Amino acid sequence: MRSIETEQLNRSYVSPNDDNIHGETDSQFIQNAVDHAAKCLIDKVIIPRYNRRTGTMKWVIDSTIYLPSGMTVVLDHCYLTLAAGAKCNVFANANIHTAIGKTLQGEQTDIAILGLGNAVIDGGEYNGLSQSTSLKNGNPHISKNTPILFSNVNRFKISGLRVINQRFWGMTFLFCRNGKISDIDFQADLSRIDENGIRYPDQLPLSYEEIYIKNADGVDLRVGCNNITIENITGITEDDTVALTALIGKNFESQLLVEGKDTDIHDVMIRNVRADCYVCATVRLLCADGNKVYNILIDGVFDESDYELARNRNTHATIRLNDRAYVNLRKAEPGDMRDIIINNVISRAYNAVSLSTAVRNVQINNIILCGPAKYAVANLHQGVYENISVRGIIHTNPSDDCAAVRLVDCTCENIHVSDVITPGLKNITQESK
Questions:
Q1: What are the start and end residues of each CATH 2.160.20.10 domain in the chain?
Q2: Who is most buried in 59, 102, 262, 303, counting CB within 10 A?
Q3: Residue 316: CA atoms inside 13 Å, Cβ hemisphere, count?
Q4: pLDDT > 70 fraction of the chain, expressed in percent and rounded
Q5: Is it true that domain 1-196+214-267 has CATH number 2.160.20.10?
Q6: CA distances from 123 to 16, 82, 139, 147, 216 (A)
Q7: Distance between CA atoms of 121 and 17, rounded to whole angstroms?
Q8: Looking at the predicted structure, is the pLDDT value of residue 430 above 90?
Q9: Is the entire prediction scored with pTM above 0.90?
């Protein structure tokens, strides 16, 4: 009679439901399945819908599951939910937060998390960990609330997931390269709270102060990410749906810096984002302190926010290029954010594309403005804007104060606007230096 180990060596995957996988919690069963697969040189773990340990159709995660190099985790129609009170990621790469993980030699490779069917990662009941409580009163850093956290990983893939009730950014990447993030649907908790902190799950917040779980972004690329494709992103986030933010924070990015890797974000493709960001931006690019963002293609961004809610929230931009906030040492300078191509945007925000601080070499093609939208391109703050080309603008319901491009109180060089299709829409309002 063949042993269980022999049978598994003849099989292409390990399951946490296997007879020889043990533990006291669902997290331990999954982690032990991953560790056993790696020991047996098996590169795949499949988490099924049925949890044999509990006899239920869910897996409750109370500690982070760490993935080694060369590992694919398949969520086969399964439902993973964070345990009440848990302050941990659902998945992270094994070398994160280790000394070797901050070196070139510690770069991990070939990690994938793939969803099949209705694969769900649920943030579950909110644990109260926020940016205001991060690292206070015994709390860990707020990054523990992002369900998927990778740092210093080469060749990765995340696809086919529904991420709901995320307690912070939905998935976060630092110093990662050659990856693909695709077919992800986000459904953030948009409950309203009143001035006393009482939650109303059936009411939508009408201001930032009323938002129950703040900073519930979708996909966040932080410092040092390059050669990554992000595509087919849908749903509702409470904050930026896709954010590329080259920033150094003292309690997060700075503690995960990889010696020998640069901190820039570059060569990223963002395609087919159909989402309601609720506040902030559907796609956001941001850099400061000498970090750079460049060689970015954004193609197909469809703002699906409600007309009237977008008007009430005064959502500033569907796509936002830079900001004057988030600065430790110095704000972005000319050349820090450059070489951006933006194609095919449908916007219900105040601006389809907003500019701030310093932006250079931007091509913007095919903008449709809907509902409360005012401008195809406008600056939010003073700054230096160079070599901006805008082509193809339609407004479905323009008012007298709408414009194709509005740049006010800023320094501009080589701004070109063409093919403004809507009759009566101003070609360009230029009140700049």
A1: 1-196+214-267
A2: 303
A3: 17
A4: 94
A5: yes
A6: 21, 5, 17, 7, 10
A7: 19
A8: no
A9: yes
